[in-house]
Amino acid sequence: MEKQKRTEIDIIGLLKVLIRNWKYLMRYAAAGAVGGIIAAFSIPKVFSSSVILAPEFSSGATLSGSLSDLASSFGVNLSGNKNAMDAIYPDLYPDIFESTKFIESLYDVPVRLQKDNTPRKYIDHLIKEVKIPWWNYPKVWLAELLKPSEPLHPSGKGAPDPYAMNRTQWDVYKEVMSAVNCQVDKKTSVITLSVTDQDPMVAAIMADTLQHHLQEYIIDYRTSKARTDVEYYRRLAEEAKRDYENIRKRYVRSSDSNLNATLMAVTAQTEDLENDMQLKYNVYTQSMAQLKAAEAKLQEKTPAFTVIQPARVNPKPVSTPKIVIMFMWIVFACFVGSVVVLWKEYKGKIISFLG
Description:
Helix 11 (about 225-255) packs antiparallel against helix 12. The radius of gyration is 36 Å and the shape is elongated. The protein has helices spanning about 1-5, 10-20, 20-40, 65-75, 95, 100-105, 120-130, 135-145, 165-180, 200-220, 225-255, 265-300, 320-355, and strands at about 45-55, 110-115, 115-120, 180-185, 190-195, 305-310. By secondary structure, the protein is α+β, with helices and mostly antiparallel strands.
């Protein structure tokens, strides 16, 4: 019972102590407000722009809609759609955004600022124009002192080597990867691409670029086999046409030069050329039919993306508002001040209790 009494906390008594020292706490609140204002105006604003896409799906689901939706809500794709057989389906799109090849394809995208129409590369914008809070400068200077940054392109040409990134290349890669984001609704498969940046125009341009890059990436994958078939049948059709034209020229020359000839050997030679020309013509028409079928298959395999919401400039920042930052600092400062006041008031009791 005595131990229980010792551990009881008089909340009312604590509040009375804090109220009695309200002037002291106001000093902490004022200091927190000053610190919050400095911090709020030191943190750069961040803007975001997003694109919402709906991918194309093939019909022919084998499960009922309710069962398929229930399974998709748990991240399981039980639908019988053809796209489920692809190696890259919507659930894997976010992983594409983390690939080195995809990230590096964004480096040379031309962008412009909202207040400066001068075009520059996206990577130059990140390196030269993106601001950081002032309290990060000591860390940057220390990092530069210990290990100076290396050039982005050591050879002076081309893209960075994905197999041997130096520190600067790795920092840029991480910065770009953290700025882009891809989310897929597992139930509806709606794709949301978003980009954050300190300039709203850059964010909108890069969001639109992400849309096209993702579409090109998926189209290239989904149609790779069909495009190979089209090129193969196109070569066959060109060779068949060339063979047909050559034999036709030979047949025409033979017919013109032996127009009045009555020898059986000449007539047989002309008939052989005619039969060969007909055979080559049949091969040519068959090759053209195969080429047209392959082109139709390529068109069928090419996925379509419906843009539900295009990229646009969002003038409202997504970063924490300055007033919220200042309020958080004031609350934290008041908490620290309360701890100090209570420590001074109950220092002896706390020490004796702990002892």
